Amino acid sequence: MRRPTPLNSRPGKNLKMEKNSFVKPRGFLEKLKNIFSSGPAREHIEDVEEALIEADIDLEIISGILEAIKRDKISDYEGVKKLLKDIFSDSLNQPSVAPQALKKVIILCGINGAGKTTTAAKLSGIYAKNGGKVIFAAADTFRAAAIEQLEAWAKASGTRIIKGIDGGDPAAVVFDAVKNAKNGGCDMLIIDTAGRLHTKSNLMLELGKIKKVVLKDYPEDEIDTLLVIDANTGKNAFSQAKEFNESIKLTGVILTKFDSSAKGGSIIRIAHELRLPIKYMTYGEDAGAISVFDPQEFVDKLFD
Ligand code: GDP
Question: The pTM is what?
Answer without folding.
Answer: 0.86
